[in-house]
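As a warm-up, study this chain.
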Amino acid sequence: MCNRYVAPDQAAIERAWHIGRHNPWRGEVGVFPRSPGPFLRSVVGETGITELVVGQWGLIPWFAKTPKLNYSTNNARFEEIAAKASYKLAWQREQRCIIPAVSFDEPCWESGRNVWWRFRRKNGAPWGLAGLWNAWTDKETGEIVESYTMLTINADDHPIMSRMHKPDPKLPPDRQDKRSVVSIEVANICIWLEGTKEEASRLVAPPLVAVVDGEPAVV
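Now compare it with the structure written out below.
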């Protein structure tokens, strides 16, 4: 699971994805669960038009009584989103988004302790990570709160991402369910944002090894 990443500044996002503005984004900054971060989504009713939105990292489901949740929704297991209450409506409504990231961090326990690793793209471009978004409405005030979650997928067979996260001593090595973010390449942005659920599902996989640059982070 990913619990921290660095979001690009607005100019870098606009250069990478050629998008218009919805909410202003202040600049390159670390993003943590329940803090604000930028995400990209299709403009409803406008084919091929993408907007930049700022929302809470931690999806607020439609049934929430308050935007302050007492459980974590910053990561969503892709294998569960069609059935899990917090995410299934956003998935059914095809509320998919791209989460821009300069880098993301994951914990490596190969030494027996937590050593944070930082992952960037080898070509220096930002990551476009797969997510779901929701716009939650406060029934008392009418306030609309934007939010999003980052999708993860099993990475037990990935030569890099399978090294991350603390091993579960109760499970054998081939059933650890190590998790990875999902990287959507620029050529597939339209499919992810505007394609059918079936088309989008075919894009869900850990990042290609060839594009990953990871090393212990200086934090």
